[in-house]
Amino acid sequence: MIDFRKVEPIKCDVCGKNLHESLCDYSALVAWSTSADCTVTEDVYFACKAKCDEQMSTSIGMTSWEDLSDLAIPTVFVNWVLSTMSKLHDGHKYSEKAFEKLLLLIANMVKEVMREMTVEEERRFSNLSDIANY
Ligand SMILES: [Zn+2]
């Protein structure tokens, strides 16, 4: 089981800045490139807007993107996750690297949009974590 509380923070793929600090000021983004037939997300990167993003998009080519600050809005985040799940159900594929970045992004955004667990919920979560394949 992936424990989202223990995942590393998302960092700019160019300068290495921790982008958690950029969630409140619309200064960072997640961008992705897809195959020509739009069936595979081939690459995903995180970047500071402007200089770092320009450097990445120059090397990767045409991309789509979202503001990380928008994804930190609970309703936007949930709609984005549901949309991503629908795409997966419809057969859209992710490269290994792109999927790992997707999981990292979701785990980091969940920390922003979810409430803290109660003590009882922490205990239940710990019990569930002991169950194989949970
Ligand atoms: Zn940067």
Low-confidence stretches: none
How much of the sequence lies in strands comes to 15-25%
Helix content class: 40-55%
**What pattern of helices and strands is seen along the backbone?**
EEHEHHEHH
Number of strands: 4
Radius of gyration over C-alpha positions, nearest whole angstrom:
16 Å
Largest β-sheet summary: 4 strands, mixed
| Apparent shape | globular
Our count of helices gives 5
CA(first)-CA(last) distance: 7 Å
Topology:
Elements: E1 28-34, E2 40-48, H1 51-60, E3 64-67, H2 68-71, H3 74-89, E4 93-94, H4 96-113, H5 119-129
Parallel strand pairs: 2-4
Antiparallel strand pairs: 1-2, 1-3
The protein binds zinc ion.
Zinc ion (ZN) binds next to strand 2.
Provide an overview of this structure.
The model has no long low-confidence stretch (mean pLDDT 92). The longest helix has 18 residues, at 96-113. With 134 residues, this protein is α+β, with helices and mostly antiparallel strands. A four-stranded mixed β-sheet has the order 3-1-2-4. Helix content is 44%, strand content 16%. The chain has one domain. The structure holds zinc ion (ZN).
Short account of what is shown:
The protein is an alpha+beta fold. It is built from 5 helices and 4 strands, in the order ββαβααβαα. The chain has a 4-stranded mixed sheet.
